[in-house]
Amino acid sequence: MIRAMAIFAAAAFQGGAALAETTAPTPPPRPGALSPFSHVDRKAPEPPPRPDDLLSYAPEAPSREQTLPKIEADASCRALLADASLVTETREPISGAGGCGIAAPVSLVAVVLKDKRRVEVAPAPVMRCDLAARLGAYIRETVAPATEFYGRQIKRVVTADAYDCRNRNRQAEAKLSEHATGGAVDLSAIEFVDGKVLRLADKTNDPAIANSLKQSACARFSTVLGPGSDGYHEDHIHLDLAQRRNGYKICQWVLR
Ligand SMILES: [Zn+2]
Fold first, then answer.
1. Distance 5 CA to ligand 1 centre (A)
2. What's the CA-to-centroid distance between 239 and ligand 1, angstroms?
3. What are the extents of the domains in the chain?
4. Cα 68 to middle of ligand 1, angstroms
5. pLDDT tens-digit profile of 116-152?
6. C-alpha of residue 24 to centroid of ligand 1, in Å
7. At what angle do helices 207-220 and 129-138 cross, to 10 degrees?
């Protein structure tokens, strides 16, 4: 009898140990460990995100998933990108974990200026099509006219980041970044044909040019973060199309 009880107790103990292992919390995946470029089959409907995936990544992810702009529909994108001044390449849908992904991504390869010259955007940023259209217009209508003078001609707009499955400022505890849904792009510099470079975050830039670039960016995008904003944007300008209540915008770019 005693022997039987001892066996029972040992079994119960093992069971308890097994239970403790299976109920231990799973650490959230690091953004870098996710696979932002895992493609989904175009023909297959995109499966809804599993709640446990979203919760293990960030508590707020489910609501973000539900509020992805309708602009991602293919038809809307085609209309937005029909502008001949935008040179874009369509990409396969991106379905990432934890709310990351873009339904109809494009990369903005170049922008054709009013006099037909072509300005490269490099590395070609992958983003939502509405952001590509907005960025293209900013380059064509503001960046080029504001910086091309004394015969200087823009060759390239240099980007620092675009689609990126990560949290804000790469901080583990932060909210999901606008970059993670293709709604944000970072610009670092403008390169001219003569080899000169204008670094956008350089506080020694001509104040009139810098102010023109800033004011137009803040009118076109819902978030503009540059030097002096939060310490994470001292060498580039972050632009995004975050949707906030009452159309609230953030424009933080200290020029000098
Ligand atoms: Zn950014």
1. 63
2. 6
3. 32-204
4. 18
5. 999 999 999 999 999 999 999 999 999 999 999 888 9
6. 35
7. 150
